[in-house]
Design brief:
This protein has a single domain, classed as Up-down Bundle (Acyl-CoA Binding Protein). The protein is 74% helix and 0% strand. It contains 5 helices and no strands.
């Protein structure tokens, strides 16, 4: 995290970024770190999440990493692809940071359900 701060501090000096911008960038980097930990925690769950939770995790991950869904909706001959597309469409217009936060919250909920 210190390395990120040094990089952004030097960028601030070169490009005249305000402190508020730097803080937002650091918060976003922290959120990415938490999402990475949440992704790791999903793999360590004793019981696999149900299909609805898996679809939600998929949709939030794709929204955070790629953005809004694009392309055509898969045909009826591809029910899995269609379900994934529909779940991702439900997250349309969600900011990447919000999707990451929702992903982490869902993982925490799944972990609490196991305990």
């Amino acid at each position: 995290m210190v390395r990120v701060a040094v990089i952004w501090h030097s960028a601030r000096l070169r490009h005249g970024l305000r402190v508020s911008h730097i803080r937002r960038i650091q918060e976003f980097a922290d959120e990415i770190g938490r999402s990475t930990l949440a992704a790791r925690d999903v793999k360590t769950l004793a019981k696999a999440p149900d299909n609805d939770a898996l679809l939600q995790l998929y949709a939030l991950y794709k929204q955070a990493s790629v953005g809004d869904v694009s392309g055509d909706r898969p045909s009826l001959m591809d029910p899995v692809g269609r379900a994934k597309y529909d779940a991702w469409t439900a997250c349309r217009s969600m900011a990447a940071a919000d999707a990451m936060a929702a992903y982490g919250a869902l993982v925490e909920k799944l972990k609490a359900r196991e305990a």
